[in-house]
Design a protein that fits this description.
The complex is a heterodimer of chains A (513) and B (406). Chain A is built from 17 helices and 20 strands. Chain A is α/β, with parallel strands linked by helices. Chain B has a six-stranded mixed β-sheet. Chain B has a six-stranded antiparallel β-barrel with strand order 14-17-16-15-18-19. Chain B has a five-stranded antiparallel β-sheet with strand order 5-6-7-4-8. The chains are: A alpha/beta (513), B alpha+beta (406).
Chain lengths: 513, 406
């Protein structure tokens, strides 16, 4: 054992770095160990084709929590952000496009071009979102209540949640209780009449949740997204990572890249005593916080006999079926979609088409006409590509990790062809401007980022896995292994670039040591 | 409907009483004759042959076999030598016993495990991370228990195993006439005895060979009724009678730790993690609530109770298995536990029982009171706590050429 740290954080993604920084700012001696040679995890930008850089796996920074930006003084460390989400552009197959400006009135005016009814509904819809936003964000920004030990403090926490629910007022509260369990298709069908607008609004609710728009509880996912997506980081995910890294180093965090942890070391009473790296180096610590997936943490970093059966069983049944592939395109021209300039773009067209796209993964096939979540990061950061050229970042829904044909160069090329064919419906000249591309199947994502089964959120956003995430005995970041904490997307409030699991995980460490 | 064991052609031909029961899905003979007593006396004075095929049987093979079993069992299987057998139990996370059985190390990386309940579902949950193959071989392998003072002499004639030197709780592969068997010096009678494991196809040949070799040694096919008497005499607990599988228990009170079953001696606590370790460590430190003890029930007082009603003592020759309250005094003010099985012991001439009592009353020699119903009336009679192994003959563990072992 060489050195001793108060806390060792495994994983140098945004959550790991936020955990480390939060702890170091409370005068803890913290070490971050990152397996890859670069920091950032899924938010690490990389060159995917000579001269073109990606923005990592996820491209949307709208859910980064302002509480963290404030508490870690990230602005001081170079972070610039806007207090509003970006404009999302929804496309139809008939060549239509509607831009959902963060300004609701502006967005409604856009929608009115297609349907006055939908424009009015959109205003009402956002009135409702506005009313429940504090409540939903309150759930996201705090650790889940401790229901296992209902002492005075826990009852007070619960009571506060009850009071904030009550504060919504009778009508809003009842509306929330009514709609949250609904399928997003049923919910939006009640409000809107234009198919591609409904589909576009619904899109975030089915990302990484192993659901289609007709699955129940997808409305809950939509509401959470709508309430939480209220920022945007200038410079995207890489700017966030850069700022958090600066903050971490400033707080005295030691960071080692290229340092893969082989084992978390426990004593005979199953208390953490250190970590062992792949190269044999051992580091002494009594606390390990891991931002890896729950499956990696419990199944790869511990010996099989070090976890109880109940934990083993829980983690084994934690659902983490990857359904997303990633395509990065390098193009030599600015691209328009349905003839319009757009930075964040959603396809979908109709609930039927979205549902069909999801159906395929149930039968271990990829969708022949996937729904695409598109971002052109070069609009905000032209340095990612040669002058005048662009990068198109596409999250492809749905392509399964468990794929009957198996992932190979042939099947990847076949998926790529389907993505391009789908894209051509909105951007007919795309092929002629292509310079290069990269496609990562869920298996590639698992390989590169250590995502269990390639799941982009470290586990599905299903309602049961959101209430007690990942499993009841670990749902408050603390695990049954003394000294081992979770601080990644497999913990509350879940995946996506929010930083919250890392921040709340760190808070729980501080509460317990 | 129960199924037939590979020995059925022989056992059914011999079972004059038609007295069968169901054991783990098999037809099993309760007693071959109208009375089981001759079968009991065969176990104790010559040799009894019992079909034990219904036990669940598993083969665990591979480089991590010992590590895999050590994770599941309360005993450190790494320490079990090749050719040795371990009696042990396995527990839930909460340290409550699921089942008990034997683990036999047939080779460095090969084990044979028996259990009373189906075990595959539980064992297989722990395969992740171990280079090991777990196979259920319950329906491929048949088993016979040959138990009693002449069992060694009989078995010697039908196989080439060095039985004079086979120690208690050891196992060896042996050659019978044209086929292979595994012999282990184990059993459920607390006497000298062996269990013999054979592929189904050779089962009948094995039965015939043993019965024929045993002719001059007063061998007798024996059923479960006789076995039940011997196992109470030997103080060997029985799942579903003296304790319940923790996985099936409806309430926590029906679960028992190894310590509470007086199986603390099988637990190796200070070693790499195993199922239930943390809970068992805590229990060891904080003390257990229960203990299983033997009860020696006072005969003269029992006799006088019957006399009061003008009756001779009516004690059946079968072992009984029902819950009978145990009190600390005749006024029945405080029930400290319950007896779960008992029998009249013909060899000891004693009325004995196995009981679960509060740990503080477990000391040998303590006098408790056990409920006794005579002519529809409930009384109590004194019961003295004793070691559960009421009958423990030297021959159980000794070898002809050496002093007793273990």
């Amino acid at each position: 054992m060489s050195e001793k740290y108060d806390i060792v954080v495994i994983g140098g993604g945004h959550n790991g770095l936020i955990t480390a920084t939060t702890l170091a700012r409370k005068n803890k001696r913290v070490l971050v160990l990152e397996k890859r040679s670069i920091l950032g995890g899924i938010a690490a930008g990389e060159e995917f084709y000579p001269g073109y850089r990606s923005v990592g796996l996820l491209h949307d920074t709208s859910q980064v929590r302002s509480k963290i930006i404030k508490e870690l003084d990230l602005e001081k460390f170079g972070l610039q952000f806007k207090n509003s989400r970006p404009t999302y552009s929804l496309l139809s197959k008939n060549g239509e496009c509607v831009h959902l400006d963060p300004n609701i009135a502006k967005a409604a005016n856009e929608i009115a071009k297609f349907s006055q009814h939908d424009a009015d509904s959109y205003r009402e819809y956002h009135e409702f979102i506005g009313k429940i936003s504090d409540f939903i964000c309150g759930l996201m920004d705090n650790a889940p209540p401790d229901l296992m030990e209902l002492g005075g403090k826990q009852i007070w926490e619960l009571a506060k949640k009850g009071i904030s629910l009550k504060k919504l007022g009778k009508k809003t509260m009842m509306e929330l209780l009514k709609v949250a369990p609904m399928s997003v298709a049923d919910f939006l069908n009640e409000k809107f009449e234009t198919d591609f607008i409904k589909a576009g609004i619904a899109a975030p609710s089915i990302y990484g949740s192993y659901t289609g728009p007709w699955s129940s509880y997808t409305t809950l996912n939509l509401l959470v997204w709508e309430c939480a997506a209220n920022q945007s980081i200038v410079g995207g995910p890489q700017a966030l990572i850069a700022a958090v890294e600066n903050a971490a180093r400033d707080a005295g965090v030691d960071i080692q890249t290229g340092a893969e942890v082989e084992r978390i070391l426990l004593d005979r009473d199953r208390k953490v005593i250190g970590v062992k790296l792949l190269d044999g180096e051992e580091i002494t610590t009594e606390v390990v916080a891991t931002s890896c997936t729950p499956t990696t943490t419990f199944f790869n970093l511990l010996e099989p006999n070090q976890i109880d059966y109940s934990l083993e069983h829980g983690i084994q049944h934690y659902r983490s079926r990857g359904t997303t592939a990633k395509v990065n395109l390098a193009v030599n021209k600015e691209r328009y979609f349905n003839g319009e300039f757009a930075e964040f773009v959603r396809t979908g067209n109709s609930f039927d088409e979205m549902e069909r796209a999801f159906d395929s993964v149930k039968y271990r096939e990829f969708s022949n006409e996937p729904i695409l979540d598109i971002h052109i990061p070069t609009i905000g950061d032209p340095s990612l590509a040669p002058t005048g050229h662009h990068v198109i970042s596409i999250l492809v829904h749905f392509a399964p990790h468990y794929f009957d044909e198996g992932w190979s160069e042939t099947t990847k090329n076949s998926l790529y062809d389907h993505v391009i064919k789908t894209l051509e419906q909105y951007c007919s000249e795309i092929s002629s401007t292509l310079v290069g591309f990269e496609l990562q199947s869920p298996v590639d994502l698992e390989e590169r980022y250590g995502l269990t089964n390639g799941h982009i959120f470290h586990g599905e956003h299903a309602v049961d896995q959101l209430i007690t995430r990942p499993i009841p005995s670990c749902s408050r970041y603390k695990t049954p292994i003394q000294g081992l904490y979770l601080c990644g997307s497999g913990s509350h409030p879940g995946g996506g670039i929010t930083g919250m699991p890392g921040y709340l995980g760190a808070k729980m460490v501080l509460e317990n040591i | 409907m129960p199924i037939k064991s590979p020995f059925f052609a022989r056992t059914s031909a011999l079972c004059n009483s038609m007295n069968w029961k169901e054991w783990a899905g098999y037809y099993a003979v309760s007693s071959y004759g109208t009375l089981h007593d001759p079968e009991y006396f065969a176990f104790r004075y010559s040799a009894g042959l019992l079909d034990i095929t219904p036990l669940f049987k598993y083969r665990v093979k591979g480089p991590d076999a010992a590590a895999f079993l050590s994770r599941i069992m309360v005993k450190n299987i790494h320490k079990l030598g090749v050719g040795r057998v371990s009696y042990c139990c396995w527990c839930t996370d909460a340290g409550k016993v699921i089942d008990d059985g034997t683990v036999m190390r047939r080779a460095e990386n090969e084990f044979f495990v028996t259990s009373a309940d189906p075990g595959y579902s539980w064992f297989s949950r722990f395969l992740r991370g171990y280079d090991v193959v777990l196979e259920e071989i319950s329906e491929e392998v048949a088993g016979l228990a040959l138990q009693g003072p002449t069992s060694r002499d009989i078995l010697k004639q039908i196989c080439d195993a060095d039985l004079n030197n086979l120690k208690f709780f050891s196992t060896v592969k042996a050659r019978a006439d044209g086929f292979e068997i595994y012999v282990s010096r184990t059993g459920y009678t607390g006497d000298l005895g062996y269990e013999i494991w054979v592929e189904n196809e050779h089962a009948i040949t094995l039965w015939d060979a043993i019965m024929s070799a045993g002719k001059n040694y007063d061998i007798r096919p024996a059923g479960l009724d006789a076995l039940d008497v011997t196992r109470v005499e030997a103080g060997l607990i029985l799942k579903d009678v003296d304790y319940f599988n923790a996985l099936y228990a409806l309430i926590d009170d029906r679960m028992s730790s190894p310590y509470e079953l007086s199986l603390g001696w099988t637990v190796n606590l200070d070693r790499d993690p195993f199922n239930g370790q943390a809970s068992l460590k805590a229990e060891k430190e904080n003390g257990s609530k229960w203990a299983i003890v033997g009860l020696d029930i006072d005969w003269p007082q029992l006799e006088s109770l019957y006399a009061k009603h003008g009756l001779p003592p009516e004690i059946g020759s079968h072992a009984w298995r029902s819950s009978v309250p145990v009190y600390i005094s005749a006024d029945k003010k405080y029930q400290t536990g319950y007896a779960t099985s008992g029998t009249w012991s013909p060899i000891l001439k004693k009325n004995i029982a196995l009981a679960t009592v509060e740990k503080k009353y477990e000391n040998i020699g303590n006098e408790l009171r056990i409920e006794m119903t005579v002519e529809h009336k409930r009384y109590t009679v004194p019961a003295i706590i004793s070691k559960p192994q009421f009958f423990n003959p030297e021959r159980k563990t000794s070898n002809p050429n050496s002093q007793s072992d273990e």
